Amino acid sequence: MAEVTLDHVSKRYGTVVAVDDVSLAIREGELMVLVGPSGCGKSTLLRTVAGLETASEGTISIGGRVVNEVAPKDRGIAMVFQSYALYPHMTVRQNLEYALKIAKVPAAERRRRGDAAAEALELTALLDRYPKQLSGGQRQRVAVGRAIVRQPAVFLFDEPLSNLDAKLRVQMRAELSRLHRRLGATMIYVTHDQVEAMTLGDRIALLKGGRLQQVGAPLELYERPANAFVAGFIGTPPMNLLPAVVGNGQGTLDGAGFSLPVPAAWQPWAREAVGRRVLVGVRPEHLLPVGREAPGATAPLRMELDIVETLGHQSIAHGRVREAPLVAILEPTAAPAPGSALDLQVPLDALHVFDAESSARLI
Length: 363
What we know:
Layout: E1 4-13, E2 16-26, E3 31-35, H1 42-50, E4 57-62, E5 65-66, E6 77-80, H2 92-102, H3 107-120, H4 136-149, E7 154-158, H5 166-183, E8 186-191, H6 194-200, E9 203-208, E10 211-216, H7 218-223, H8 228-233, E11 240-246, E12 252-255, E13 258-261, H9 267-272, E14 277-282, E15 288-289, E16 298-310, E17 315-321, E18 324-330, E19 341-347, E20 352-355
Parallel strand pairs: 3-8, 3-9, 6-7, 7-8
Antiparallel strand pairs: 1-2, 1-4, 4-5, 9-10, 11-12, 11-14, 12-13, 14-20, 15-19, 16-17, 16-19, 17-18
Helix pairs in contact: 2-3, 2-4, 3-4
């Protein structure tokens, strides 16, 4: 195990900035998830840690040692790629032990490590099979096993589950979580799937356009996003963001088709922010149908329904407040038919407010 420290790391390809001044400290034994949309720089950053790309600026340290000029094979890392990259002509055992054979590890030690990895990943019964005889999930476990046998200081995962179907992804997420707890290893995991990020990570680092947006525990990003981008990326469905202006009088957030009172604790801010353009955020699961008892103060909101998705345990209602899109998560019987209106309550203590220009969190 080792800590990994990125200090003002940037990566440029000509005039294109793929990673822009990222500083990040990954603690020993931590599972850090790098997440963001396609093209945000997360895989480039991981490859830079691995030594497959060279940092244009900044320093990368693993276990307290600066590794910018250290070859990938000498960095004490093992990487699991999106493609399984298994040798098709080798058995599972041979795939597991191949890197150790190249490193001239004695045969008895190779076998011991291979058997231990196979047992940890429930591959013992498959050791004599070839990759073509394995399912996608089994192949991915072999790829993870090849990393385990090397006993690295840091594991790097580059979207390892993206080739699996939905059911297998859920299963493999659970297996990777158990593996991390068992090994207590430092892991950096790249994904574009925020569900993977929320369920796997001890902490999440969210990137956009090569820049770090927020770092924190999954619930920290969910409950107190640093800006509107984080709010709209984390959560399924994501947070609703309604354009509004801070109003006069008692303090209101006024948008097209709604006026929400400012909670008492925000009144001093509202008096200073009159006329400011903002985005009012509220999670879909916090919106409640009128008539349902709600703790705390609420304000009404009328939604014109477009689509209702019935999932059995809940319904997801998609609609609009005037021109602003709105999504609400409701009980299966609570959503009326598409084309009708739905009166909702907005719990005021569940509101978030972001600046409309910079998207930074205000309240």
